[in-house]
Amino acid sequence: MNMYFEEFEVGQRFQCDPRLITAEEIHTFATQYDPHPIHVDKEFAETHSIFDGIISSGFLTVSAMWGQWIRSDVFGNEFLVGKNFDYIKFTKPVRENDVLSTEVEVMELRPTSSESRGEITIKFTVTNQKDEVVLLAQLKALLRTKASILVKN
Questions:
Q1: Which of 138, 124, 120 is CA-nearest to residue 81?
Q2: What is the DSSP secondary structure assignment for residue 152, as one 8-state letter?
Q3: What is the 3-state composition of the chain as percent helix, strand, coil, each rounded to the nearest 5?
Q4: Dihedral pair phi/psi, residue 59, rounded to 5°
Q5: Burial (CB count <10 Å: 0-12, 13-18, 19+), residue 7
Q6: Quick check: 5 and 109 in contact, CB under 8 A?
Q7: Kind plus residue range of the DSSP H or E element containing 50
Q8: CA neighbours closer than 13 Å in the CB half-sphere of residue 8
Q9: CA distance 25 to 111
Q10: MaoC-like domain spans which residues (predicted)?
Q11: Is 133 in contact with 125 (CB distance < 8 Å)?
């Protein structure tokens, strides 16, 4: 798709392709990056967790969300950098065989002091196959403007 900053509108929404979360993926990710027992130890997760079983690391959920968004190619090559997340909220646990869908909404568009880039604020809403919201996040990022074609940064 490859959209420049000026081509976005506040309120615009984009749907990303659904994504299956597997038990193997939960275990592999957690073993490497978030080895808390609620992500890797079935017995512990069933007896000592408020979730009654293994759940995905929230960071895997964020990574899956981001991967869905990047693969949608809306920003394309005009994406410069993610500046910061305003918030990340884990609203429900993600479990094996959950199918996650991500909707992205443009919340704010702000020109910067450089005519070659603008700041976009986007909100991510991630739902599972039951249409339950499992993650909410908001990100500020810099995108190229059409003027960037003519301006050297």
A1: 120
A2: -
A3: 30, 35, 35
A4: -70, -30
A5: middle
A6: yes
A7: none
A8: 31
A9: 39
A10: 10-125
A11: yes
Contacts for 120 with CB less than 8 Å, ≥ 6 apart: 5, 8, 106, 108, 109, 110, 140, 141, 142, 143
Helix axes 58-72, 23-33, angle to 10 degrees: 110
HSE-CB for 13 with a 13 A CA cutoff:
5
Nearest in space to 59 (alpha carbons), one of 86, 99, 32, 82: 32
Provide the token pair at 152: 């050297």
CB atoms within 10 A of CB 42: 12
Domains of the chain: 5-149 (3.10.129.10)
**Residue 37: closest CA among 46, 45, 27, 29:** 45
Question: How many angstroms separate the CA atoms of 62 and 143, rounded?
Answer: 21
The CA distance from 125 to 9, in Å, is 18
| Distance separating alpha carbons of residues 69 and 43, to the nearest angstrom | 34
The residue length of the chain stands at: 153
**Token pair listed for 104:** 């992205």
The Cα–Cα gap between 121 and 133 comes to: 20
